[in-house]
């Protein structure tokens, strides 16, 4: 699993978190910018998990298969899920939901790195 | 008519609680199926925490008087659990060969297991019909 993908996913997720939480502080509901951020983070997450699965097929299997699959699935679904719930709440708290989810993504990247064993 | 508990900050709580429900359930299931013998007490506590998160999420989503009471009961048990297990895991680490969600006051989860029930109880109190302004 290339380190550059982990770093990239972490950086875009933290950017989205900053964006969303700043919007919440300014009393803004989720907007187009946050949607674009969510899409970018989702793509990064899918690419990262894809790369991990590819190296798994290539013979490098994760140390804990079930746990890896759980984290991978969570990371792929989390940004989109947060966006859906965030849009249900058209107030500043919608932005809080997207910001919190974006903060969880770097944690998942770390844990995936640990269970995959670089 | 009491103010709703499942919108605004309440929706954030529902989201985070839902996430914790999924995470704790998966973790407890994996632990109990794969290695129950290693640390049965820890894994049963993980499972209990998972059930509490699920019930609290359901109670918050429902948001009516019953759901509110359900959520309040879960938050209270959670708070007692995280304080008790947190204290025990520091004083007698040998009793907990593997970490639970509540070990070290939830340090493995950014102390959210300690913060969430407090936040939830405050939220429900603020939104109680008597104190609603």
What is the CA-atom radius of gyration of chain B, in angstroms?
15 Å
Could you list the spans of chain B in which at least 5 consecutive residues all have pLDDT below 50? none
Mean pLDDT of chain B: 88
Distance between the termini of chain A: 7 Å
Secondary-structure content class of chain B = mainly alpha
Helix segment count of chain B? Answer: 4
Order of helices and strands of chain A: HHHH
Shape of chain B: elongated
| Major interchain interface with per-chain residue totals | A-B, 18 and 15 residues
Number of strands of chain B: 0
Strand content of chain A: under 5%
The helix content of chain B is 55-70%
User: Structural class of the secondary elements of chain A?
Assistant: mainly alpha
Q: Helical percent range of chain A? A: over 70%
Low confidence ranges of chain A = none
Dominant shape of chain A: elongated
Rg of Cα set of chain A: 15 Å
What does this structure look like?
Chain A has helices at 3-25, 32-57, 65-88, 92-116. With 118 residues, chain A is mainly alpha-helical. The model of chain A has no long low-confidence stretch (mean pLDDT 94). Chain B is elongated and about 45 Å long. Chain A binds chain B through residues 66-67, 70, 74, 78, 82, 85, 88-89, 91, 93-94, 96-97, 100-101, 104, 107, and chain B through 7-9, 11-12, 14-16, 19, 22-23, 26, 30, 34, 110.
Summarize, please.
The complex is a heterodimer of chains A (118) and B (133). Chain A has 118 residues and is mainly α.
List keywords for this structure.
heterodimer; A: 118 residues; mainly alpha; 4 helices; elongated; B: 133 residues; 69% helix; transmembrane helix (chain A); membrane (chain A); transmembrane (chain A)
What are the SSEs and their pairings?
The complex is a heterodimer of chains A (118) and B (133).
Chain A: H1 3-25, H2 32-57, H3 65-88, H4 92-116
Helix pairs in contact in A: 1-2, 1-4, 2-3, 2-4, 3-4
Chain B: H1 9-35, H2 40-62, H3 65-91, H4 112-126
Helix pairs in contact in B: 1-2, 1-4, 2-3, 3-4
């Amino acid at each position: 699993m290339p380190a550059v993908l982990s770093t990239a996913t972490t950086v875009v997720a933290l950017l989205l978190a900053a964006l969303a939480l700043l919007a919440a502080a300014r009393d803004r509901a989720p907007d187009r910018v946050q949607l674009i951020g969510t899409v970018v983070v989702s793509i990064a997450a899918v690419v990262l998990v894809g790369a991990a699965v590819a190296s798994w097929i290539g013979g490098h299997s994760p140390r804990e298969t079930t746990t890896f699959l759980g984290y991978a699935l969570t990371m792929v679904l989390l940004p989109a899920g947060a966006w859906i719930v965030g849009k249900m709440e058209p107030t500043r708290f919608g932005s809080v939901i997207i910001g919190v989810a974006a903060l969880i993504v770097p944690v998942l990247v770390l844990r995936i790195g640990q269970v995959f064993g670089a | 008519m009491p103010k709703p508990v499942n919108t605004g900050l309440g929706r954030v709580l529902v989201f985070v609680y839902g996430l914790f429900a999924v995470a704790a359930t998966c973790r407890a299931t994996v632990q109990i199926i794969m290695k129950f013998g290693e640390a049965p007490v820890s894994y049963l506590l993980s499972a209990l925490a998972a059930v509490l998160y699920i019930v609290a999420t359901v109670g918050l989503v429902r948001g009516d008087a019953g759901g509110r009471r359900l959520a309040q009961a879960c938050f209270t048990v959670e708070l007692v659990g995280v304080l008790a297990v947190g204290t025990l895991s520091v004083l007698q680490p040998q009793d907990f060969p593997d970490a639970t969600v509540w070990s070290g006051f939830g340090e493995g989860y950014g102390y959210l297991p300690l913060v969430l029930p407090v936040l939830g109880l405050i939220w429900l109190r603020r939104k109680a019909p008597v104190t609603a302004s």
